[in-house]
Amino acid sequence: MKQVYRYGLSGLLLLGGLAAPGRARAQDAKASFSLGSTQDLVRQLEAQVAPDAAQRSTPTVTLRVSATKAFTGKVNFRQDLSTDGEYLIGEIQNVPGSSFLLRIEGSTVQGNIIFRQTRQAYQYSADARGIVRIQPADINKVICIDYNEPVGLATPTLRGDNTASRAAVVSLQSYPGARGCIMLDFDGQYVSGTPWNNGNPINAAPAGMTDAAIQEFWELVSEDFRPFNMNVTTDEAVFNSYPKTMRMRCIITPTNTAAPGAGGVAYLTSFNWNDDTPCWVFMTSPKAGGEAASHEVGHTLGLSHDGRTNPKEEYYDARTSAGNWAPIMGAGYYKPVTHWSRGEYAYASQTQDDLAIMAGATYNVGYRNDDHANGISGATALGRNGTSVSGSGIIERTADQDYFTFTCGAGTVNLNLNTVGRHGDLDIVGRLFNSSGGLIGTYDTQGSLSTTVSANLAAGTYYLQIDGTSYGNPTTEGYSDYGSLGTFSISGTVPAGGTTAGVATVFKDCNYTGAAVALPVGDYNLAALQSRGILNDDVSSLTVNGGYQVVLYENDNFTGAALTLTASNSCLVNNPLGTGNWNDKATSLRVQPAASSFSVTLQAEAASVNNGMTVETCTDAGGGQNMGYVDAGDYLVWNGINFPTSGSYTIEYRVASGGSGGTISSDLNAGAIQLGNSAIPGTGGWQNWTTVSRTVTINAGTYNFGIYAQTGGWNINWVRISKAGAARTMLASEVAAPETAPTLEIYPNPVTDQLQIRSDASLAGSDYQILDAWGKTVATGSAASGRLNVSHLQPGMYTLRLVIEGKAQPAKRFLK
Prior knowledge:
The protein is mainly beta. Strands 1, 2, 3, 4, 5, 6, 7, 8, 9 and 10 form a ten-stranded mixed β-sheet that branches. Strands 39, 40, 41, 42, 43, 44, 45, 46, 47 and 48 form a ten-stranded antiparallel β-sheet that branches. Strands 14-11-15-17-16 form a five-stranded mixed β-sheet. This is Carbohydrate-binding protein.
């Protein structure tokens, strides 16, 4: 049975006696000190509880921190945690501004000793063997200290009766059902049995805020935690539905007993302490109080202060900066934009990765799931009502990019890309692409979190990318895109009509009757179909132009059973795949060039060659094509070969050899993508032609195709590339590869030494620029090889800018 005692524990808190007072040895200030095993310590404490409680009116304990140094602690709260634990809270006798806590539960040990006036602290822990240890600690790694109110803030008047009737607070939730929970508690709270006030109770007064002020306060904190799987609520019942290790109460009150004179206070890492120790905010204005609440909850999730080393300051408030930004873990009172940070500003006192720490495994919260595709394939269709369109989403991570699609008639497209109406974190950049993924324009209103898109477009299908962006110079007045995260909305007008001539048409009824919608080449999930007036499970017949195919999928997002049609079909009844039929069954579909329709023959004379290879002309019975003689080390390249769809391709080499043959290899983009080797047989004569082939897998896109003579020498007549095999039905268990290659792809990401570039335009003559997280150029050069050496770069986030054929490509971010 658990028992709770207040003012009732004395005796020694440590194994062994108390040494005589004296000056601690130099090593004591650094080294940890062993206090024995957890269970030995618990048994000693349990043996002292009963006699101590009966005999002492002012219980004290001895808190040893080294072999030569100990403090006397006055116990204000004690809880017996069954047979394997103790929970003690109190203060150091005769030392104002001091406190201690020690919680032992099984093999888990948590606790500290704090001296606020001298800014000293010690922390308890247990090692892998269950040995309790204590050692000096940076007080700022234990508790938020000296986090003062903004300059000039009016101090609220404390209500005299804290137990008076408290008005109900409006119930708000930012992410119902999320893994973790933050409660903003505005209606007052009686707090006992926590480290606050040295274990003595606190009867916190209500905040006394209007519903409108509470709403704004909640909006600010909700947006700060929007990227995470976290529900910010004002509802006590919602908070109580979460386990203690997955929730944090932040009390907003003028009662500042927990930290007199401060703007707020919290214990670091207390989110998962399992004892409902709250954090506090003592300001009731939405801006100042909201910034303080995010700051203090950030502490409970393991974050330290963002300060500066020059001038030396614990909290960076950016008041001397010309910009509009400050870090949340600094003092964000004075700036309209605040972000989670990794110390990118000048003289940062620490470079802690705020996002990674809060989303890490320690607190088991993590990021939200991504809500939109990060590329053109699978882009979400904007909702449409006449000429009005709309959409919304969340940028959850620094590298997240959300894609949307729309079809329009010829005319001007006007779109508003907005973050939240107040206290936003997301600085938006929009990018507009055409149907093949070519960049039309980049739209970023510097100095404003929101932006607009205005473009005069031809009829067709387009894609809109939403991304977080930077502002100014992060080392001085600006910020990088690291913490530019949060909510966005899309609204505006798009000319109606504009359906381009479709290569496929789907019909509501059999025999090509009922509502008909023409579709150009592209991927159409359920949302994209519905935006065009095609309902779920409502396609009964379709037409397909020659050279194209339609792949029907039973489920959304191109999953489930699938059926590939390379010709028109007047009625999908009795078109079985396994069992059943395909009438009124399609939920998503793809329109693409037919898998068997692609074939290109490459002549040797048209290739770019090296090593002085001789290109000759001859006539032969196999087709009279131009040819060349290939010797070991020769390399032939044909630029701009388009592979219309992803999948298997057959590469055929027509060759002749007078000797023993050799080995030939093929690749894409100057070796960036290797397609493997093929053995060339000896044909017994330079005009005795044979065809050697191999099957390879290639993603859709435009590449420079090359062949390289590994060994031997032979005549080459031609190289033919064709789509391997006929179209086939996909199995339900297969996941289809994207059919449209991105305009620019980089890999691997993260990268160590070599960054590869893949583009559907030729890289010949292209140039690149690499910028670091501060916007500084750190590397430039030619990108023609498709391979960049980044081994010299320091670890961090970088942006790659590429110019191909004189046109700037969409910027890509990569992590080193």
